User: Fold these one by one.
Assistant:
Number 1:
Amino acid sequence: MKTCAIIPLKKLLYSKSRLSAILNEKQRKELTLCMLKDVINACLNSKRLNSIFIVSQDDIKFSDFGDEIKIIVDSGELNEAIKNAILRLREYDIKIIIPCDIPLLEGYDIDFIIENAIKYDIILSPSCDSGTNLLCIKGVNDFKLEFGEGKKSFISHLKNAIESKLNVKVISNERIALDIDDDTRLLYLSMLDADKYSIKYLKGALYEGNQNHSN
């Protein structure tokens, strides 16, 4: 079966506004790109993914990973843009929607999801605040999407799957669950010792911020 990852990327200008008490606009943009690199690395390390697509509201150039990453520019609303990508990528039997702000994701997490997708139409993995941090769709192109900042999308996605009589499985995973949407999770990420672009960037940014504050 052909598999692909779909990674939505909202406008970088407005990225991670809820972190503005700790990071300035430039730092939030750079952190978002670092987390995106971490997610892309996880996808590249997967043994079961065939293709990786970024659905971006910006016409970005992403040359760090060569031709392995394909950009789909769509300035529409988040759910509509993802739906358009799902319809466009009909040739892929399994599509995994992965947010760009789960930097602890690993390739073997994705492989585990794909292995389970053989038996299920929908696989959901929740965030720590009841959002949906991974949605795997097999053979379904009209699944109702409920993504959005502040929305408890996990319950909505689960309800939609059950009402549509789809075979659904929930997989909880602490690496997938950690999205960086508030100051507490940001500081937690910065204290981890892991080979991640985002962690290295945060350690430098927060150190620089503390130095400036002390001066």
Note: Residues 25-45 form the longest helix (21 residues).
Number 2:
Amino acid sequence: MLNCIIIDDEQPAINIIASYVKNIPYLNLITTTTSAVEGIGIVTRQKTDLIFLDIQMPDITGIDFIKAINGKSKVIIISAYSQYALDGFELEVIDYLLKPVSFARFLKATQKAWDLLGSAAQPPAATADFIMLKGEGKGKFVKVEWNDIDYIESMGNYTAIHSNGKKITSLITMKELEDKLPRQKFIRVHKSFIVPVAKVVSIHNNTLMLKNCNIEIQVGDTYKTAFFEVIKIQ
């Protein structure tokens, strides 16, 4: 879990970003402020992993704010002005987002933050039992509970998540999704299939049967050793 704050001198902008943060399981919003000077005090007093920061503010600029905190927290800039992007990246910000920011673009930026900072924080699987996936249709995201997944199937650049008898198609590769899954719950058994370990009910001649699924899945040669080790079959 990444502890974060939002700093922007416009409250409506704060409200939008705060609503985005609430929909991302690995982000924990500590507080928000319309004052960059107050933000410096917050960062000094308590551990803050990530800051969503505006550039043009009346007390000090976002660039001066980054210099003032001297690397205590990582920053994602959210600004209506593109001309400060180079300055931001020279100060090693994680990303630079232009207002108005879509949830999809915001999610992409926070995933970069998690990739960079997550190994030092609490794993998201310990606090969240779901994932938000980009669905079919512009701006559509679908919440998928880990425990509801029956199996996952590769469809090229897309992936089909079979969940409670329904098929959810998302523009994400199998490898990208595999990296986001809790490893203690899911295992790759074939180049085209990932299954929940708990839903494997029988194995015959390297063919799996899954709970409540009318499908047989062959365990690929590449994945046999790891699979049999996980389910304790010698």
Note: The two ends are 37 Å apart (CA to CA).
